[in-house]
């Protein structure tokens, strides 16, 4: 199949940063359904749609290889992403997949510290830090998820939670490396709940994260880090969230499972 003529991906003129819109499929779709969804998304997008933001797709591990082959053979302008990995390179860790294994599949982005992993699978900040390091060591980019629960928000602890999650995840990384990561601000009360944060919430979360990074690594590094917003993003809310100050993209769960809805978000 002929390669699509693609407009060059342009950085946001306001920030100089490249936007990133990611589809986190979570534990949905078998590999056959996954192929269908990627094809549907591809056929629904026009060349111009690729100029605004890089698009990464994060299927379950069983679909990584088929989707890698599909993207590469049809030269689709999607980046392959994973949802998780383990920090050891190999060994007796039944059921786990290493960062090394992902990088062999040309995975570019790996979600780390998603609130579902923290809450359901007991991932601590220390584990998140080890995984972040392992991902970076394989020349992939972590999408580090941070966010406060409804209770923490009500208790006025949002700042502390975000700063702690960021600080511990990037502990003992060099400034040069930290500048390359992506952070996803995902208020937990907005994930899968239909409660979407306002653009002002997204801006204030992004600002807190950048302030903490600036405190740790300097303003220059903080200005280079890309920050996504995630949590119940829909085609209706995507535009304003993408335009929110300090927001460089979106991490989309539910709506990324629908080719039509996800392409409308990309066009937003
Ligand atoms: P949601 O999920 O869009 O379905 O709320 C977002 C996420 O968990 O990354």
Structure at a glance:
By secondary structure, this protein is α/β, with parallel strands linked by helices. It is 42% helix and 15% strand.
Taken from the alpha-carbon principal axes, the silhouette is globular
Kindly report the spatial arrangement of strands forming the biggest sheet.
Answer: 1-2-3-4-5-6-7-8
Q: What is the total domain count? A: 1
Question: What's the CATH C level?
Answer: Alpha Beta
Main β-sheet, in a few words?
8 strands, parallel, barrel
> What is the level-2 CATH architecture name?
Alpha-Beta Barrel
What percent of residues are in strands?
5-15%
List ligands, each type once.
2-phosphoglycolic acid
> How is the CATH topology named?
TIM Barrel
Radius of gyration: 17 Å
Q: Total helix count?
A: 12
What is the residue-mean pLDDT, rounded to a whole number?
96
- What is the end-to-end distance? 28 Å
CATH superfamily: Aldolase class I
User: Helicity level, as a percent range?
Assistant: 40-55%
Layout of secondary structure:
Elements: E1 19-24, H1 31-44, E2 53-58, H2 64-73, E3 79-82, H3 99-104, E4 109-112, H4 115-120, H5 125-137, E5 141-146, H6 150-154, H7 158-169, H8 175-178, E6 182-185, H9 199-217, H10 219-224, E7 226-230, H11 235-243, E8 249-252, H12 259-267
Parallel strand pairs: 1-2, 1-8, 2-3, 3-4, 4-5, 5-6, 6-7, 7-8
Bound molecules: 2-phosphoglycolic acid.
2-phosphoglycolic acid (PGA) is lined by residues 24, 186, 191-192, 230-233, 251-255.
């Amino acid at each position: 199949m002929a390669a699509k003529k693609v407009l060059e991906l342009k950085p946001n003129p306001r920030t100089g940063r490249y936007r990133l819109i990611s589809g986190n499929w979570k534990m949905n779709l078998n590999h056959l359904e996954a192929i269908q969804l990627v094809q549907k998304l591809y056929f629904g997008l026009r060349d111009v749609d690729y100029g605004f933001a890089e698009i990464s797709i994060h299927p379950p591990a069983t679909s990584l290889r088929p989707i890698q082959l599909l993207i590469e053979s049809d030269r689709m302008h999607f980046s392959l992403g994973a949802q998780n990995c383990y920090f050891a390179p190999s060994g007796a860790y039944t059921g786990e997949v290493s960062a090394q294994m992902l990088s062999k599949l040309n995975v570019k982005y790996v979600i780390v510290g998603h609130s579902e992993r923290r809450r359901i699978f007991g991932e601590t900040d220390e584990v998140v830090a080890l995984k972040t390091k392992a991902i970076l060591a394989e020349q992939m980019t972590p999408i580090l998820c941070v966010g406060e629960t409804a209770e923490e928000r009500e208790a006025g602890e949002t700042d502390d939670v975000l700063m702690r999650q960021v600080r511990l995840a990037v502990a003992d990384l060099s400034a040069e490396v930290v500048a390359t990561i992506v952070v996803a601000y995902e208020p937990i009360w907005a994930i899968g709940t239909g409660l979407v944060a306002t653009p002002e919430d997204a801006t204030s979360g992004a600002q807190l994260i950048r302030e903490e990074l600036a405190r740790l690594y300097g303003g220059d590094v903080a200005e280079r880090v890309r920050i996504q917003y995630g949590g119940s993003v829909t085609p209706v809310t995507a535009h304003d969230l993408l335009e929110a100050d300090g927001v460089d993209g979106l991490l989309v769960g539910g709506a990324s499972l629908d080719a039509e809805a996800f392409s409308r978000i990309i066009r937003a």
